[in-house]
Amino acid sequence: MDYGADSNARSPALQWRDTMARSFQYYLDKSTPHPVGRWFGSLFVATLYCLRIYYVKGYYIVAYGLGIYILNLLIGFLSPQVDPETEGPALPTKDSDEFKPFIRRLPEFKFWYALTKAFLVAFVLTFFSIFDVPVFWPILLMYWIVLFVLTMKRQIKHMIKYKYVPLSIGKQRYTGKKASSANSGFSKD
Fold first, then answer.
1. So what's the pLDDT on residue 130?
2. Which InterPro entries does the UniProt record give (predicted)?
């Protein structure tokens, strides 16, 4: 049988998978212009995961792995796409340099999507006892905090050295020059 010749000859499972994939992509595309709603959804998923860890009192190694992955995503989110240390300065370093916008190595949407998927996968892993490895969680927590502080310190030094700010709140508006006082008496009648 040649399944590639006719789409009707494909198995129902493959057709269902393709339909679900198209539906998922449709809703993912519709969520793109709504970052606040997306992040609230992720916050809900993260809260569910934290509550699960709290009530089960286990799966700390899964939480540690999730924390390391989130730290890795955060570094990609805060880093420029073109690293000035390795590929030369792409960001302006003097006032006379041409303005080049900050382009992230990991865009906000991909950061959100990877973060949400990570929380969902970690949540699912908490239902399998093989991942409940007995560990002394305060040691893991302290090690993660030290790792976070050292990594962020290095990242902030990099930001200061190459003078870039990866966060932008809202759209910048340029007003131009103010009108002189002589023109203030002029009216458009």
1. 95
2. Rer1
Q: What is the DSSP string of 97-129?
A: SPP----BSS-HHHHHHHHHHHHHHHHHHTT-G
Could you give the CA distance from residue 79 to residue 18 in angstroms, rounded to a whole number?
Answer: 35
Compute the distance between CA of residue 165 and CA of residue 159 in angstroms, rounded to an integer: 7
Q: Which two tokens stand for residue 180?
A: 């002189």
**Domain assignment of residue 125, yes or no:** yes
Query: For residue 159, is it within any domain?
Result: yes
CB neighbour list of residue 113: distance below 8 Å, 6 or more residues apart: 28
Distance CA 154, CA 151 (A): 5
pTM above 0.85, yes or no: no
Tokens of 16: 């269902």
Query: Which residue range forms the structural domain that includes residue 121?
Result: 60-84+103-167
- CA-based radius of gyration for the chain: 25
- Tokens 């992720």 locate to 42
Q: Residue 48: CA atoms inside 13 Å, Cβ hemisphere, count?
A: 15
* Averaged pLDDT, groups of 10, the chain, 189 residues long: 57 92 92 93 96 94 96 90 69 59 83 96 96 92 95 89 71 59 51
Spell 148-184 as b/e; 16+ CB within 10 A means b: eeeeeeeeeebeeebebeeeeeeeeeeeeeeeeeeee
Cβ 66 vs Cβ 118: under 8 Å? yes
In a domain, 34, yes or no: no
